[in-house]
Amino acid sequence: MTRLELQLYDYNEWANRQIFNRLKELSEDVYRQEIQSVFPSISHVLAHVYLSDLGWIEVFSGKDMNHALMLQEQLKDETELKELKEMEAMFLKLSERYKLFFSQLGDSDKPLEIKNPNGDLMETSVFEQVPHVTNHGTYHRGNITAMLRQMGYASVPTDYGLYLYLKQTGAIVGKDFS
């Protein structure tokens, strides 16, 4: 049986691939086109999601939240300058890091104490935070969908229900933790 948290992460990886595949179908300038939205461009959205995911795997791996936030700030400008293919490769590499980490955890969860920047301490665990990582990605894929539509392009479906259907029908094979 697959842990729901790991299935959610697998879904997150699939949904990101859907977005990258759609962006590669469009003109290269769409990725950087500036528009009036929550983020100035799709490249900025993807950089934000990548850096957030990077920060969380750092925290999962034992680093404190301040380290993760400083790392994100250090890499922000250079990440925003990455071309689409580079960003996709970075997402894939980061996903491999997550999968390796999860495989090393096995069925056991890892407790986390997260000291938030305001000084509050939150006691949680890796598997409690995986839905947060996934939900954050889902939220920002929605931003990308809205931005694409604002530019006159269709997006691509990334719904969890579609993912489950495609997985059940065998259209997604060998891409999960089960």
From TrEMBL:
Keywords: Metal-binding. Gene3D superfamilies: dinb family like domain. SUPFAM superfamilies: DinB/YfiT-like putative metalloenzymes (SSF109854). Pfam families: DinB. The keyword Acyltransferase does not apply. InterPro entries: DinB, DinB/YfiT-like. Belongs to the DinB family. This is Damage-inducible protein DinB. It comes from Scopulibacillus daqui.
